Amino acid sequence: MTASTPPGKSLRPRLRADAARNRAQVLAAARTAFRELGTAAPLDEIARRAGVNIATLYRRFPDRDALIAQVVLDGFAVVLDAARTAAQTARTDPLGALETFMLSLVDNRETLVLPLIGGPVTNDPQARDLQRQIAAALEEVLSAARARGAVRPDVAAVDLITTAALVCRPLPHLPQQQAATLVTRHVGIFLDGLRPNTTRQLPTAPTHEEVAVHLAPGPPEEAPPSAASDR
Amino acid sequence: MTASTPPGKSLRPRLRADAARNRAQVLAAARTAFRELGTAAPLDEIARRAGVNIATLYRRFPDRDALIAQVVLDGFAVVLDAARTAAQTARTDPLGALETFMLSLVDNRETLVLPLIGGPVTNDPQARDLQRQIAAALEEVLSAARARGAVRPDVAAVDLITTAALVCRPLPHLPQQQAATLVTRHVGIFLDGLRPNTTRQLPTAPTHEEVAVHLAPGPPEEAPPSAASDR
């Protein structure tokens, strides 16, 4: 490995350690900047926060859309991991699995820059795909729970996603520990509300697709994302 | 009533119609500006949005803290009204009363610029007093509910306040109707989770005072909050 690795398409498979570190730093800085300043956060501000040259940022991410897409994809990947873990443990303890799912997202919320918690929407078709997989894993949890008679029949994956979104946004001004306790209590009460023999009639849930279309507007042929364009 | 009403402390009791209108416009503009830009929102920007002269703004509110305090107090007053309505109807249908309480706050969230939903903290002792009254009214609802065996013993007013805060922040990117449906479902499930015969053990709740101290730090001599020190 030499110092003269050429930039371009073939760079990524053999990223040197410092290049990988730069890339991670840029993504971490972008996560913070998008959360604080929105998608319009200046790229040179992101480079500054990452401690890298703006040219280095462009070498890793050809344009703003590519950077946004990667940050959002990373967030969805964290959620998918948590949802799959829940699906694995749901057979023995479905409500426990959902509790672990929710609270692990709260614990990792700094890495979650997702549309429903205030992050940007991306056109990247991979985002839509990850969302489908997340919904599928959560439906698997609910199926296992229904098979045990452990949850109300009218709960859907979209309710779990909504709840995760609500609890992942920090309660402002409170000390972290106190906010965490209150959110844990909220999640506990919500989970008890999932049990059968309900009293509240819920309005009809939107389908996963109805929600997702607003959070990842679809494949390139529908709406060409600039992220896919070479520069 | 003349056109030459002098400015100052004695103005308020005899506000003319246009002065009252100006005041309401300034408060409405401040609500929006504080939500969008934080407590540091420039006062001349607030005056501009309100369509009034900056001098007019200063005639109604001598400084930034006075304006912040009034916006926050107005928000707490809306919550207190809703909590008192809930307390009145709790005897016959406590969970229904809580549902109405939560959803009426969601409906009115544009008027709620409160610490827990991202609004500023104020030193105004009236804020602390309103918070106490809100907590008392909600405890009254819970007492009525407990007397009917309608709620779990371990739920506290602070849980209802946390939940109201979580659901009052809009779910981003979703169409309003869809977000409203999802929040209504969330509230319904949460309320069913309040029923007795629970399965989840909740961590010990912070007391109302432990939470409130971060949201209205009391008179300036106790603990000047940094949130109010940005002018």
Automatic annotation (TrEMBL), chains A, B:
Pfam families on file: TetR_C_43 (PF21597), TetR_N (PF00440)
HTH tetR-type domain boundaries: 20-79
PROSITE patterns, alphabetized: HTH_TETR_2
Signal peptide coordinates: none
Ranges of the DNA-binding region feature: 42-61
Listed InterPro entries: Homeodomain-like_sf, HTH-type_TetR-like_transc_reg, HTH_TetR, Tet_transcr_reg_TetR-rel_C_sf, TetR_SbtR-like_C
Keywords: DNA-binding, Transcription, Transcription regulation
Keyword Transcription: yes
Designated name of the protein: AcrR family transcriptional regulator
